Amino acid sequence: MNQPQAQTQLRHGRVTSPASRGSVAIDLGLLAGWQVNEMEGGKNFPALVAGPFPAPYGSDSDSVTPPADGYVLSGGKTDARDCVNFTSTEMSKKLNRPFEWPLLNVTPGQTLKVNWVYTAPHTTRGYRWLITKDGWDPQQRISRAQLEAQPFFEDFYTQVPYYSHAGEMKAKVDHEVKLPANKKGHHVIVLMWIVANTGNAFYQAFDVDFK
């Protein structure tokens, strides 16, 4: 039974560069690629409840319930994929050895290039980027309280309604974002690939070190 389910879940996508927490979990043998392709949860995050996608894109499919606090980085998944939500201390216990999430060295205000691999691209509304607050606590799992209230960047297709423009609203293999100019040290970035014709987004997380 597991194998057919795995095959159907190969249908989404993940970031392959730079390394996400999901990529690290694959390298550690904790997750398979299809599991990281399906870090799928409600697309209205950081909202708490299901409901219409905000204007002017209200004709998009309603969001299902967004991820709960503590399970944000896995898109709300609480199975084996919960490991991407782990603090370094939790991961050290799981691996029975010292562990720190690897940090990607970045500079404030730089352009970060991201590469995706899709196993079945969906009609895409766009991409939302969030980041941890100054003074966030790495010893606590990522929650809404740990993140800035507003995304630092959104890259959305503007066509509405989506069903009249599905051929144009393609998932992007490569895209870029300008990182915040006022951050220092270790932060976690949450990237959401938001789908127009379902209630979900796909969540990817990165640990960065602003130099």
TrEMBL record:
Domain Chitin-binding type-4: 12-208
Keyword terms, alphabetized: Monooxygenase, Oxidoreductase, Signal
Pfam families registered for this protein in UniProt: LPMO_10
Domain of life: Bacteria
GO molecular function annotation: monooxygenase activity
InterPro entries the record matches: Cellulose/chitin-bd_N, GlcNAc_Chitin_IntDeg, Ig_E-set
CDD domains, per the entry: LPMO_AA10 (cd21177)
PANTHER family per the UniProt record, alphabetical: CHITIN-BINDING TYPE-4 DOMAIN-CONTAINING PROTEIN (PTHR34823:SF1), GLCNAC-BINDING PROTEIN A (PTHR34823)
Record-given protein name: Lytic polysaccharide monooxygenase
